[in-house]
Design goal:
elongated, alpha/beta
């Protein structure tokens, strides 16, 4: 248990530049407190002490603002940064080295008693306000941009943004590069639908200018002139 706690604290130190010491992380990071209490409540849940597990998770929610169902399975070195408003459902599975920001929801959309929450594989980053809904899978190393709503599987190494979330290309989370805080780098999270609309708008402007140019070059046809010209043509 202490080795797992040490790994969770080290993950914060590595991924949050605001963390100045392990002592500060231990005392001041609600994400660490929530994960630590969840590991205790999950142990109770697995032993069949369901009410005790739920009560402990409720205490963790009051203390941290982070709601993690005791049935959820969390991997090692999980970082919940800021954390307020994070919700992780009962059948959610979270892998190793995952980063979640505030107001992330790993939620269910079904009343079925089986698997109804997401599976988040290793090395995933999910940005603030994102909602991942249903028994889908976020592939290893994928990124989910802030405020995205994910309704279908995300391939490994992909980056998705928007509502509903759409891929903007393979941009896997690579440890050797700058850590992708909030799922995407500034300026890189352009909604693919907005990008298509921008291209269509530019094309329409080009076509409008071309039509205006052709109309200026078009020779006058009979009947296009003044009334005097039409009378002369008729005579």
């Amino acid at each position: 248990m202490f080795k797992t706690l040490a790994d969770d604290i080290q993950a914060v130190v590595e991924r949050d530049p605001a963390a100045r010491s392990k002592l500060e992380v231990m005392l001041c990071y609600p994400g660490v407190h929530a994960v630590m209490l969840h590991r205790l409540s999950h142990a109770l849940w697995r032993r069949g002490w369901l009410v005790s597990a739920r009560f402990l998770s409720q205490i963790a929610r009051w203390l941290t603002g982070i709601e993690i169902h005791p049935g959820a399975q969390l991997g090692r070195r999980l970082l919940i940064d800021h954390g307020m408003g994070v919700v992780i459902g009962e059948t959610a599975i979270v892998g190793d080295n995952v980063t979640l920001y505030q107001q992330v929801t790993l939620g269910g959309v079904s009343l079925d008693p089986g698997k109804r929450h997401p599976t988040v594989e290793d090395d995933v980053v999910i940005g603030a306000g994102a909602a991942v809904l249903g028994p889908l899978t976020i592939g290893k190393g994928a990124r989910v941009g802030s405020n995205a709503v994910v309704l279908k599987d995300v391939p490994a190494g992909a980056t998705v943004v928007g509502i509903p979330a759409r891929p903007i290309g393979p941009q896997p989370v690579i440890k050797e590069t700058c850590f992708p805080a909030y799922g995407t780098a500034p300026g890189a999270a352009i909604d693919p639908v907005a990008r298509v609309i921008d291209r269509l708008t530019e094309r329409l402007e080009e076509l409008g200018a071309r039509v205006a140019e052709l109309e200026q070059q078009r020779p006058a046809a009979p009947g296009d002139g003044s009334d005097e010209e039409r009378r002369i043509a008729a005579s």
